[in-house]
Amino acid sequence: METMSRPLVRVLGQGVRWATGLRGGGSALPGLFMEKLHPGFVAEELARLPRGVVVVSGTNGKTTTTKMTVQLLRSQGLRVFTNRTGSNFVRGVAASLLAEMDAFGRLDADVAVLELDEAHAVHFVKQVQPRISLLLNVMRDQLDRFGEIDTTRRMLRQVARATTETVVLNREDPRIAGLADDLSEGTGVSWFGLSDALRPMFPSDDDMRDGLRQVDPGEQDVQVPSVRRPDADVVLEAVNARSVELNVGGEKHEATVDLYGVYNQYNAAAALATALRVLGTDADVASLVAELGSVTPAFGRGETITVAGKPLQLLLVKNPAGFRLSLASASAQDYATMIAINDQYADGRDVSWLWDVDFDSLRDAGVDMVSGVRAWDMALRLDYDLVRVGSVEPDLEDALRQFIAGSGERPMRIFCTYTAMLSLRRILGGMTHVAAI
C-alpha cells in the first residue's frame, strides 16, 4: 500500500463509493477505505481550499446550523463543500469528499463547512486545523456515550484551541462562553447571543437545573468559568411566529426564519455570525439576512412531509432542553401528536433524561400515539404528568399508519429520537415523496 499513488487510491475510493451506492451501502464505507489506504487524504484535500475549513459542533443544532451557514455562504457566491448527509466523523468527511470530486480528483470549492460530532471533532482537528469554529452549546445529551457534561466541554475546548483564526461562541451558555479564556495565541472570538428578554426561553444546562439567575462569580463551580456578557456580533432581539429581530453590529434587521421551533431562530443568529466571519469585508449583511428566509429544514429537524394530503412534521429530540423548546414552539391543541423513542447507540441508551422534560403542555390535548423501543417507558413518563395517551404501539410502522389514519383533519407532528426518525422517514418514503438525505 505504501507504493500506491494518491491518484490511484482516490480512484479506488471513488470506485468503492460507486459500488456501495449501487448496492445501497452506507455512505461512510468509502471513507473508511480511504482512511486505511491513505490516512492523510482528508487533510491534504481540505488544505487546498482558499478560505479554509469551518467546523460546527456542540450538543444541539449542528445539522440545521450547518445547513444555514452553507446556504448563506453560497448566496454570496462562495463554492461550499459540506458533509451534507450528516456523516459527522472523519471517514464521513472523506466519503463526502469522494462524492464531490470530479473524475480528475478536483474539488470545486472555496471553503468547507463541516458538521462534526463533539467526540469525532477532537480526532478531526488533530488532522485538520479549522480556520473558524462555531461552538453552539453543551447540554446533557447521550451521557452514556460521553460521560459527564464537562467531558463534552473538554472535547469542544480542544476544537477551540485548534482553531487558527476565529471561534464563534454562544454568549449565553456558560460552558461555551468560558472557552474564550483558553484559546491559542492569535485566535479571536466572535459572539452570538440573546437579548435579556429572550434569555429565559433558551436555558443552558445549568439554568435547567437551577433556574435562570444572575451567577455570582464567587460561587462558580471550577468547571464553569465566571461568565461575562461581552458585546455580541449578532444578537437575537425578538422572535415571532415566522420572523425574528436581529441586531447585527449595532444595526437592527428583521428576518424571516420559517423553521419550526424557537431554537432554530437562535441557530439562525449563530449561522449569520459565522457567515460574517468567513466573508469578512465581503459580507453583504442585508442580503445575508434576507437569505435566512429561504432556508428549509434539515431532514428530521422540523422537516414537513405531506402524507394523506396533510402536513407531518418530524422533530428530533435528544435531551431535556431540546424537547422542552420543541414543545413550546407550537400549541399542542393544533396538532395530532406522536412520540417515538428508541434507545439505540445513536439515540443514547439511557433515556432517563425524559424525566427532566415537563410535559404539562400536552395535558389538555393528550398524545395520540407513543411508539419505539422505549414506548412503554415514554407512556409511563406521560402518565406521571397526567397526559392522556391514545395508543401505545412499539412497532414504528404499525404505529405510524395508525397515527395517520386517526389524525382526522389535524396536521401531524412526531417527536422522535434519531434512529426512530430515520426509520420513520424510510417508512414514509413508501407512502409519499420524502426528500433524499
From TrEMBL:
Function, as annotated: The lipid II isoglutaminyl synthase complex catalyzes the formation of alpha-D-isoglutamine in the cell wall lipid II stem peptide. The MurT subunit catalyzes the ATP-dependent amidation of D-glutamate residue of lipid II, converting it to an isoglutamine residue.
GO molecular function: ATP binding; carbon-nitrogen ligase activity on lipid II; metal ion binding; tetrahydrofolylpolyglutamate synthase activity
Residue stretches making up the Lipid II isoglutaminyl synthase (glutamine-hydrolyzing) subunit MurT C-terminal domain: 316-421
Reactions the enzyme catalyzes: beta-D-GlcNAc-(1->4)-Mur2Ac(oyl-L-Ala-gamma-D-Glu-L-Lys-D-Ala-D-Ala)-di-trans,octa-cis-undecaprenyl diphosphate + L-glutamine + ATP + H2O = beta-D-GlcNAc-(1->4)-Mur2Ac(oyl-L-Ala-D-isoglutaminyl-L-Lys-D-Ala-D-Ala)-di-trans,octa-cis-undecaprenyl diphosphate + L-glutamate + ADP + phosphate + H(+); beta-D-GlcNAc-(1->4)-Mur2Ac(oyl-L-Ala-gamma-D-O-P-Glu-L-Lys-D-Ala-D-Ala)-di-trans,octa-cis-undecaprenyl diphosphate + NH4(+) = beta-D-GlcNAc-(1->4)-Mur2Ac(oyl-L-Ala-D-isoglutaminyl-L-Lys-D-Ala-D-Ala)-di-trans,octa-cis-undecaprenyl diphosphate + phosphate + H(+); beta-D-GlcNAc-(1->4)-Mur2Ac(oyl-L-Ala-gamma-D-Glu-L-Lys-D-Ala-D-Ala)-di-trans,octa-cis-undecaprenyl diphosphate + ATP = beta-D-GlcNAc-(1->4)-Mur2Ac(oyl-L-Ala-gamma-D-O-P-Glu-L-Lys-D-Ala-D-Ala)-di-trans,octa-cis-undecaprenyl diphosphate + ADP
SUPFAM superfamilies: MurD-like peptide ligases, catalytic domain
BP terms from Gene Ontology: cell wall organization; peptidoglycan biosynthetic process; regulation of cell shape
Keywords, in A-Z order: ATP-binding, Cell shape, Cell wall biogenesis/degradation, Ligase, Metal-binding, Nucleotide-binding, Peptidoglycan synthesis
Active site (catalytic residues): 350
Positions of the Mur ligase central domain: 56-275
Assembly and binders: Forms a heterodimer with GatD.
First-level EC class: ligase
Enzyme Commission no: 6.3.5.13
Family: Belongs to the MurCDEF family. MurT subfamily.
Organism for this UniProt entry: Kocuria tytonis
InterPro entries: Folylpolyglutamate_synth_CS, Lipid_II_synth_MurT, Mur-like_cat_sf, Mur_ligase_cen, MurT_C
Protein name: Lipid II isoglutaminyl synthase (glutamine-hydrolyzing) subunit MurT
Keyword rRNA processing: no
Gene name per UniProt: murT
PANTHER family: LIPID II ISOGLUTAMINYL SYNTHASE (GLUTAMINE-HYDROLYZING) SUBUNIT MURT (PTHR23135:SF7), MUR LIGASE FAMILY MEMBER (PTHR23135)
Keyword Coiled coil: no
Pathways per UniProt: Cell wall biogenesis; peptidoglycan biosynthesis
